[in-house]
Every structure is written in C-alpha cells, then in structure tokens.
Amino acid sequence: xxxxxxxxxxxxxxxxxxxxxxxxxxxxxxxxxxxxxxxxxxxxxxxxxxxxxxxxxxxxxxxxxxxxxxxxxxxxxxxxxxxxxxxxxxxxxxxxxxxxxxxxxxxxxxxxxxxxxxxxxxxxxxxxxxxxxxxxxxxxxxxxxxxxxxxxxxxxxxxxxxxxxxxxxxxxxxxx
Amino acid sequence: xxxxxxxxxxxxxxxxxxxxxxxxxxxxxxxxxxxxxxxxxxxxxxxxxxxxxxxxxxxxxxxxxxxxxxxxxxxxxxxxxxxxxxxxxxxxxxxxxxxxx
Lengths: 176, 101
What we know:
The complex is a heterodimer. In chain A, 18% of the residues lie in helices and 32% in strands. The relative contact order of chain A is 0.17. Chain A contains 1 helix and 11 strands, in the order βββββββββββα. In chain A, the strands form 3 sheets. In chain A, strands 1, 2, 3, 5, 6 and 9 form a 6-stranded mixed sheet that branches. A 3-stranded antiparallel sheet of chain A has the order 4-8-7, with no helix packed on it. In chain A, strands 10-11 form a two-stranded antiparallel sheet. The longest helix of chain A has 31 residues, at 144-174. Chain B has a single domain (3-99), classed as Butyryl-CoA Dehydrogenase, subunit A, domain 3, CATH 1.20.140.10. Chain B has helices spanning 3-32, 38-67, 69-73, 79-86, 96-99. Chain B is elongated. The two termini of chain B are 32 Å apart. The interface between A and B is large, with 40 and 53 residues.
C-alpha cells in the first residue's frame, strides 16, 4: 500500500519551501531522508494513518551542501509483515475530520531514514554515484501528477453535483 | 428554480472533464517523446477548473440540501453524506483560494 507524502504541517501550498531533506551520502551511495523540525512532519498523506508501507516522499534534494529543489523519493515506512514503523519513522493517524472517512489520512516523521540512491524517481531527474545531478527534459513535469488529480476533481465535481441533483430533483418531482 | 441551472452546470463540468482528460492524455504521450509544451496550458486549465468547479459544486450541494426542506436535512436523504464526502475537494490538491490566483 503506497501513499503520496508532500504536504507538511508547516507547508501546504508553499511546496517550494518544504522542509524535509534528502541528502546524498556518497560514501554509502544512499540518500538520508530527514524531517529537521516538527513543522517538517508530513501531514495528511492518504492511507498513512494505519497501513501505508511505502510512499513517494517529496523532499529537498541536497548534494554536497547544495540544494537542487523538491524531488520525489521512494521511502519504506512500515514493515510489510507486521506493519510496525521502520527505524527512524514515527507515524500515526490524523484523527477525526469533516468527511471523506474512507480515506485513512496520517502523519509521518522521518529521522535520518536511509534509502538507496536509486529510490530517487529518476525518469526526469538523475543523480549518479558521484553525486552529479542532471535533468532529462523539463523539471516541471514532476508536478504533472497534481494535474492528473485535479483533472479527476473536475469529473468528481460533475458527479458530486449530479448525485446531489438526483436526490433534489426526484424529491421536487413528487413533492406537492 | 434552484435546481435547473445546477443541472446544466453539472453537464457542462462533464464536458470540460472530457476536454481536460483528452489534453492530459496528449501531454502524457508528448512527455514520452520529450515534448513539454502542453505543461503550461495544462497547469492553467487544471488549476482554474479544479478551483472554480469544486467550489461551485460544494456550494451547489449545500443549496440543493436547502432547496428540499426538511428532507434535505435528514441524513436519510444522503445529502449530508454528500456534503461530508465532497468537502475535502475544495482544500486538497491545491487550496481553491490559492489555485484561483
């Protein structure tokens, strides 16, 4: 079960200033994913509350002290057998909310969690084992996943309205 | 006559979705051949549509619930659940107030 961990406690629409970092460690060929402050805690990821084992974590890519911007990384959060959090991971449920109860939103804090270098999503941005960063194509493409969900929201707006209308119109037709 | 304009709008949203999904699928094809021109256009369409449509729908469902008296207030009508379920859409994937800017 996977999730999409972008929004942080202190940063929603301000994606560019997310605080979670992924620092390249050349010695072990790994990224170290870290939430340096409480406000860097990932906040609201869907299905993070009880059972997401993996996810796409958006973090500031840092190589040799230089920031390259926010990139997606595959991180494992929980054991796939016991569903207990992995080393360095603290996570939990977001608690009661207005609606959409079928979505088990959670929160996620990572304390220097190590992942292989290959866990950076490398279709459009690459880091080699010497720590060289390169872009294949247009870096804005990383954001196109949000366009997909927004397109779905266009459809859900139509359906949401149609569903409520079915109830309203039927009632109006029989009510005298 | 609260319901008829909403009915028309719901159909219009469906047409806009068909348009948007066609453009999005074209974008996915383009990206495979390293063409990124549609990104700009898609950003504008999806941010604008998302913000305006989801807000209109949220307000619309509330208005439908109020247009059928006590029946709409009763949970058995299904409308309170519809309001609950739709409510995150005005916030997530880009808060509507921000997206419209």
